[in-house]
Amino acid sequence: MTELSPVPCLFVFILGCAFLLTNYKVYVVYKYSSHCSIWEAKLSVRKLCDSFKSDEIIGDFCSPLCFTDDVTIENCIRHNDEEVKFSVRNSKTGDVYVLSSENNDVTSETEHKKLFNRAMFLSSGDSRIVKSNKSFDLFSNFDQSLTIPELRTVISLLRQNKFFKLMTSSKNVSIGNNVTLMASSTGGEYFPDIAGTCGNYYVTEHVLPLTQSNSMRGNHHKVLQLAKKLDESRVHACDVTISSVGLNRRGNAVMTNQNRVFTKEVLGVLFDAIPCASDYDCTMLHCTCVCDVTSGYCNKHKFDSNVKVFQRTIISELSTDRDFQTICNNGICDGTRYLPKL
C-alpha cells in the first residue's frame, strides 16, 4: 500500500481550515453588518402593520405608515440582532424620519393584569403613563382603562434603553389613544426629537451628521451650545466624535449616539467604582475625573464638564477661527465668550 505524503495532507488541512474560517467571517459580517436591504425593511413594516390591523398594538404613526401612501420607506439603515432602523419620507411634507426599534417583537403576553403590572414596573422611577389625564405608576392598582394593545405598546417601548434616553430630552411622548409617556425631562433637547410611535417602533426626526454637512467647519458655536445644554441638564457625553454629533431640522446640534450619555448620578457611580493611583486612571472614553488618592478611587463628584470634553475632542477641528482654536486648545473657551445665549 502506498503511503500518503504528510506534506500534501497538511496543505489540504490548512486549505480546509482557511475555507471554514473565511466562510465563518462572511457569516459574522452578514449577521452583524449594519447594511441591509429595502426588502428587509418592507418585511418588518408589513409585520408591524399586520399587528396594528389586528388591534394588537397602537401608535400615532401606525395609520399614516400602514393605511396611506403618504409615508414611504426610503432605505434600510440597520437590521441586526441589536437594532432595526429604517428611513421613511412623508411625500406630502417632504420630511424624512427614522423608524427604530431595539427589539423586533412585541410581547406575546395576553393576560391583562400581568401586562398592567409589567408596564407599571417599567414606568417606575423617572417615567409614568398618562391616559385621559389619569396618571399611572408603580403603585397604581390594576385598571382596565389601559387596554391590552396599549399596555403591549408601552412595554415594548419602555424596555428599550435608547428610547428611554430620548425621552429625557424630549417633551411628553404621545403614543395614541390619549396615552402619553412622561419622563422627568431635563428640557435640554440634546437628542433628536421623538416624532411618533407605532408598536415597538419609535420615530425620530432626521439628523444630518456633521460629517455630511456642506460646511462642517464653522459649526463650533452650535456644538459648544450643545455642550452647554448637556451641562445644564446634568448629563454627560463620554463618546464625543464628529460622527456622534449632527444637526437637526432646526439647525441645532444634537447627539446622534445615546449609548455613552449618562446622567451625572450614573456617571458618578461608574467613576466611584474605579480604583486609581493618579488622575490618569480616572478615564472613561472621553470623560475624566480626579483621583482621590486617600480612598484610592476616582472622585465621583469631580469630573470634567461637557464643555471641556468637547474642547478636547472636536471643537478646534470644527472651527475656522484660528484665535478660537488657540483659546480652546489652551482650555479656556468656557462658553461665556463664544456661546450664543440660550
The domain tally reads 2
Beginning-to-end CA distance, first to last residue: 89 Å
Main sheet record: 5 strands, antiparallel
Q: If helices are DSSP runs of H or I spanning 4 or more residues, what is the number of helices?
A: 10
Approximate helicity band: 25-40%
Count the beta strands. Answer: 17
The gyration radius over C-alpha positions equals 25 Å
Counting copies of identical and different chains, the oligomeric state is single chain
Strand content: 15-25%
Structural class, by secondary structure, is alpha+beta
Poorly predicted runs: 21-33, 334-342
Mean pLDDT: 81
Sheet with the most strands: spatial strand order:
1-2-3-9-8
Overall geometry comes to: globular
Order of helices and strands: HHHEEEHEEHHEEEEEHEEEEHEEEHH
Describe the structure.
The longest helix has 27 residues, at 6-32. This protein folds into two domains: 34-206, no CATH class; 210-329, no CATH class. Helix 4 runs parallel beside helix 5 (148-158), helix 7 packs antiparallel against helix 9 and helix 9 runs antiparallel to helix 10 (322-329). It is α+β, with helices and mostly antiparallel strands and 342 residues long. The chain is globular, with a radius of gyration of 25 Å. Residues 21-33 and 334-342 have low confidence and may be disordered. The protein contains ten helices and 17 strands. It has a five-stranded antiparallel beta sheet, with helices on both faces. It has helices at 6-32, 38-53, 62-66, 112-122, 148-158, 161-169, 220-232, 264-272, 306-318, 322-329; strands at residues 71-79, 84-90, 96-101, 127-131, 134-136, 173-176, 179-183, 194-198, 201-205, 208-209, 235-237, 245-247, 253-255, 261-263, 283-284, 287-292, 297-303.
